[in-house]
Design goal:
The protein is of the alpha+beta class and 204 residues long. It has eight helices and eight strands.
């Protein structure tokens, strides 16, 4: 499953098979709508379903659902992309504003950046993934080109050679393998980071 945030313009013509009975996009809540009718939807879809929406909506951010932490990754993508952020804030206003405090004065209200999210649950960390899955996830995470430098930076010669041999020869990446732990440490990854990489790799 993929978590994504979609931006739909008010004048978008949608085919009948993705419109609900009340005439709105056939997408679940949460949603946000601005005064002109432009919409944001937080969705969790199969990739095939998400691809169906790409020709009708702008996908502002997307990431594989891996349980707790998925929403944070998704919104971080929007914060890091000026164009996505502009579209996002054109529908959901995150600017501080003055509101009535109920006592004859005003107070500053700062909306949460997240307009909504779907429930997340803890997902088990796989004991192992294939080397193909592991390397593909490193590539998707932008870490693959850092691995060589990380291994070369291991100061103990024997440990460095063991890590290189493991990366080159292992067909299975075991979560608690000492060489994998050494590479993860050299990359500066936390235990949670490596767990997340394994959870995501298992979906590939």
């Amino acid at each position: 499953m993929i978590d994504a945030i979609l931006h739909l313009r008010a004048n978008t013509e949608l085919p009948a098979d993705i419109i609900s009975d009340n005439g709105t996009p056939d997408l679940s809540d949460p949603t946000a709508i601005n005064a002109t009718g432009d919409r944001l939807h937080y969705v969790r879809l199969h990739m095939e379903q998400l691809n169906q929406w790409r020709s009708h909506a702008t996908v502002l951010a997307e990431t594989p659902y891996t349980g707790v932490g998925t929403t944070d990754r998704l919104y971080q993508q929007i914060k890091a992309d000026p164009e996505a952020l502009a579209l996002y804030e054109s529908v959901y206003n995150t600017s501080p504003r003055e509101i009535d405090d109920g006592e004859g004065g005003t107070t500053t209200y700062v909306p949460p950046f997240k307009f909504g999210m779907l429930a997340e649950s803890m997902m088990p960390v796989p004991e192992s993934v294939t080397s193909r899955q592991g390397m593909e996830q490193l590539i998707r995470s932008g870490l693959d080109e850092q691995v060589d430098d990380a291994i070369n930076g291991i100061t103990d010669i024997v440990e460095r050679k063991l890590a290189r041999n493991w990366l080159d020869k292992a067909s299975i990446w075991e979560r608690n393998n000492p060489q994998l732990l050494a590479i993860g440490n050299a990359l500066g990854l936390s235990t949670e980071d490596v767990d997340s990489l394994f959870i995501q790799a298992a979906t590939l």
